[in-house]
Amino acid sequence: MPLQPRERDLPRIPAALVFYKVSSIVTGTLLLLLCAEMIMKYAFGLELELGGAYGFLAFVPSDSLQAINLSLGILMIHGWGYVVYLFADFRIWSLMRWPFPKFLLIALGGVIPFLSFFLEVRIVREVKAYLASRAASANLNPESVEATH
């Protein structure tokens, strides 16, 4: 029988789920930006520049960067966003007490384009279904209700 979340952890799961949802969408979006930037850089030799001679925001040849290199910025922001995503992944995984391969699958969402969006929908649906079934079983079980005097 797989492990179930602890009773004391149930109130923390909804907040962890929201944190996971937000970090998943942000990390997935940054990963798509990073992939587009890598294509521009390695296929066309262009990097994204902010405030340079070519205008406010422009793709310029890699050897002629003069202002802020947004390509490097996207890379760094995605890296730190992925660290936050891993923390959110670990938090929901540990609260739900899932097996370790599931943690690894969710972690892949930050490095495989589009996977975080699919996993976000799947994980949220799974956790919400579990919480709903747990709430329904608690309402049906009269022994779980304590009488007060």
Structure summarized in a few sentences:
It is found in: Cell membrane. With 149 residues, the chain is mostly helical.
Task: Give the arrangement of secondary structure elements.
Blueprint: H1 13-44, E1 46-52, E2 55-61, E3 68-69, H2 70-96, H3 100-108, H4 115-140
Antiparallel strand pairs: 1-2, 1-3
Helix pairs in contact: 1-2, 1-4, 2-3
Structure overview:
This protein has 149 residues and is mainly alpha-helical. It has 4 helices and 3 strands, in the order αβββααα. The protein has helices at 13-44, 70-96, 100-108, 115-140, and strands spanning 46-52, 55-61, 68-69. It has a 3-stranded antiparallel beta sheet with strand order 2-1-3. Helix 1 (13-44) runs antiparallel to helix 2. It is found in: Cell membrane. Residues 19-124 form the DUF3817 domain. It comes from Mycetocola miduiensis. Its main location: membrane.
Global shape: elongated
Domain unit count:
1
Strand order in the largest sheet: 2-1-3
Q: Helices and strands, in N-to-C order?
A: HEEEHHH
Please compute the radius of gyration using only Cα atoms: 22 Å
Q: Determine the number of helices (DSSP H or I, runs of at least 4 residues).
A: 4
What would you call the structural class? mainly alpha
Number of β-strand runs: 3
Percent of residues in helices? 55-70%
Main beta-sheet annotation: 3 strands, antiparallel
Sequence stretches where pLDDT stays below 50 over 5 or more residues: none
Whole-number average pLDDT?
88
Key attributes of the depicted protein:
149 residues, mainly alpha, three-stranded antiparallel sheet
